[in-house]
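Most newcomers find our protein records easier to grasp once they have seen one. There is nothing in a record beyond a sequence line and a structure line. Getting from the letters to the tokens is the skill we practise here. An example says more than a description, so a record of this kind follows:
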Amino acid sequence: MVSTIISGRGVYKLSDVALKDYPEIADIQSKGHKFDVGSSAFKILKDIIYFEDKPKTDKDYVQILGLLQSARVRYWIAKDYLITPESFYKYKVFIPKSGGSGAIGEKESTVLIGEPVIGIPNEGATETFLSIGTFETEGEAKSALKYIKGKFARTMLGILKITQDNTRDKWKYVPLQDFTSNSDIDWSKSIPEIDQQLYRKYGLSKDEIDFIEEKVKTME
């Protein structure tokens, strides 16, 4: 299931080096969360360890995806200030941990998730986002992105996702696919065409397909 390739919350942490160089971080961050790369990181630690423009120093810098005043931005941070998961070095898909709508049927047409985006190697994200996959190629990440945006995957997500909260466990019933060129799904096709392949693969009835097509909003 897709839940097996989704990171838990807080997989990116600040390192001891960051706290040693900037001990004030412990006072700025909330109690017990001094190592967090939290949702408000860019606001409270801007120009301390996170920078809009890449600093011109001898350190190696990497980018972190997050939110600032509700807008998605990528800020620079020294690489040795981060503790990162394996997926940091690979392609992946970032998806908002909160967003989209609640249960299918609450509205005439439901989107269920916030807009996902591909993460490149040496790029991380704040706790605002979940990370999906540890892909060797950009092609696999693009295929995963199409799958997540498709109506079939989001319908299966909707079995457990009945609020805006989009945690790893909510993806328990979303089947994991092979996103390589060896897959039984032709990922070169459009998202609607991929959904049709998935409907056939899992033997959905016409009524089930009609329900999904009516109740789940298209994502481009």
Remarks:
- Residues 2-215 form one domain.
- Helices lie at 16-21, 25-28, 41-44, 138-149, 151-157, 191-201, 206-215.
- The mean pLDDT is 93.
- The radius of gyration is 19 Å.
